[in-house]
Amino acid sequence: DTAVSQTPKYLVTQMGNDKSIKCEQNLGHDTMYWYKQDSKKFLKIMFSYNNKELIINETVPNRFSPKSPDKAHLNLHINSLELGDSAVYFCASSQGTSGNTGELFFGEGSRLTVL
Amino acid sequence: QQQVKQSPQSLIVQKGGISIINCAYENTAFDYFPWYQQFPGKGPALLIAIRPDVSEKKEGRFTISFNKSAKQFSLHIMDSQPGDSATYFCAARVQAGANNLFFGTGTRLTVIP
């Protein structure tokens, strides 16, 4: 049983297109995240939702829009894709946001390539 | 601005040797310091974590050493095995925050048989 699943795993698209990545977790967690990992492996948080409410919104272009229809899902929509958006996008979830319960469970990532 | 500085960028160790990865931070509001392990094509997974009121935590072959006054912490992997070959990330979290983890830049560990 996959705990945090993302689709698609690979995405190749042209500059200027709009694309979405979907994420679902079956761990019963109340908090979900999107992280971006660039070509140098640097991991940076983009967004976090707690009980469907946006709680972290890092400095990300507004072409990126997250949507959480319920606690178990967090989707990422990207408009007008640019070359610099090429990266691996990781979805993650956690139960709670503090204390020792803050362990993040990551999905396997969605590799986005913009041509 | 890099909140957590990690070194080395890459590390090659013989099987059975000790792997040591170091991290440093400036923000004294950090209250939780986990290490994540990432294999190629996979997402990072929690390996071991420590809170600043403890100077050392050991789980099997993995030990975190924490120096609060120096604002440094390190991961030691004893008896390193080829299966430990992965990228390791240290991270830090702001106290009572929204679980915003700041990750180090990663260390690619290769254990040679």
Topology:
The complex is a heterodimer of chains A (115) and B (113).
Chain A: E1 4-7, E2 10-13, E3 19-25, E4 31-37, E5 43-50, E6 53-57, E7 64-70, E8 73-78, E9 87-94, E10 105-106, E11 110-114
Chain B: E1 4-7, E2 10-14, E3 19-25, E4 30-38, E5 45-50, E6 56-59, E7 62-67, E8 72-77, E9 86-94, E10 101-103, E11 107-112
Parallel strand pairs in B: 2-11
Antiparallel strand pairs in B: 1-3, 3-8, 4-5, 4-9, 6-7, 7-8, 9-10, 9-11
Q: What can you see in these coordinates?
A:
The complex is a heterodimer of chains A (about 120) and B (about 110). Chain A is mostly beta strands and about 120 residues long. Chain A has a single domain, classed as Immunoglobulins (Immunoglobulin-like), CATH 2.60.40. Chain A contains no helices and eleven strands. In chain A, strands 2, 4, 5, 6, 9, 10 and 11 form a seven-stranded mixed beta sheet that branches. In chain A, strand 4 and strand 5 form a beta hairpin. Chain A is globular, with a radius of gyration of 13 Å. Chain B has one domain: Immunoglobulin-like, CATH 2.60.40. Chain B is built from no helices and eleven strands. In chain B, the strands form two sheets. In chain B, strands 2, 4, 5, 9, 10 and 11 form a six-stranded mixed beta sheet that branches. Chain B has a five-stranded antiparallel beta sheet with strand order 1-3-8-7-6, with no helix packed on it. In chain B, strand 6 and strand 7 form a beta hairpin. Chain B is globular. The mean pLDDT of chain B is about 95. At the A-B interface, strand 5, strand 9 and strand 10 of A face strand 4, strand 5 and strand 9 of B.
